């Protein structure tokens, strides 16, 4: 099994929703990964669509980089609706 | 508990002041109930403890298919056979969720399975007992899966994200297991012959104490347990979980019209809990050491399943390569 590829599995639980990461499977190829993922993650109709992605193909931000990497968003409070104070007459906007 | 006596490597707990800055940052996150994810820094002891625990837990799910597989071909009706097959497939699924969670810690699945086969990693003591009659399928679903639920519900809040998320999926499915087990017993008690009713009582007699042992001996004074609690891998002591299981199980036992093989079992008005007799811990330690009815046989079955399935895995790889070649030459 060591030479099988690790695939990350994403499930769309119903139409209109995003695919969501649920776990991973090992498989000899992508088709087998889809079938394994169906058996493992959708035995009780948990999905209407499946994606499998070779784990090695995913580029991720480093785990503990939360502060420096996401810093640029911290000092831009004017990106939030709540930053703009409006008079009560029009505040439902 | 599916993972019993997990070693954390800790002799005593470190205070925040004694910790390195990284360790302290980690512990503060855990204390604040922030989940730890695979790429986050974690103490080596935390990583190793989780690998040990999840590996043992995963092996237990996989080995746990064997005692039930024993009755697949002899299930009394097609309906019962389909239900049992669905339950066993779930157990395989639980094992796979857990192996996946374990791999996020850098452990290798094949290597952990090898360790199981060499006897270096254990599986739960409960699966070393034989399944002698059909009623055992009921008793296992009700008692063993019932005890597993009590243990696994708090694990849904475990500090390690992938383990906690695997447990959420597992717990959703376990409830079907427990109910199908109880329904097997209830049907035998309501519609069965005297012989079949006696079978139910006999199955309960054999699985009662081993189910209580699943939670492991009291860990009130154990440094391993204190460390696991500080890391929020573990949330409750073994005795507390055992009592919780017992309190919810005894009324179900009475509803069945059966008894427990424990003359000391009785409701205690003062404590609001059931009192129960002394557990034979020597039996538990003997089982962990490998002196058990089916321990050796279970590992042998696991090994031959892997060896005899080699041609299937080889065929899958050969097929995948062929498909790839065909796709290339068509392009």
Automatic annotation (TrEMBL), chain A:
Gene: paaB
Pfam families: PaaB
Superkingdom of the organism of origin: Bacteria
InterPro entries: PaaB, PaaB_sf
This protein's name: Phenylacetate-CoA oxygenase subunit PaaB
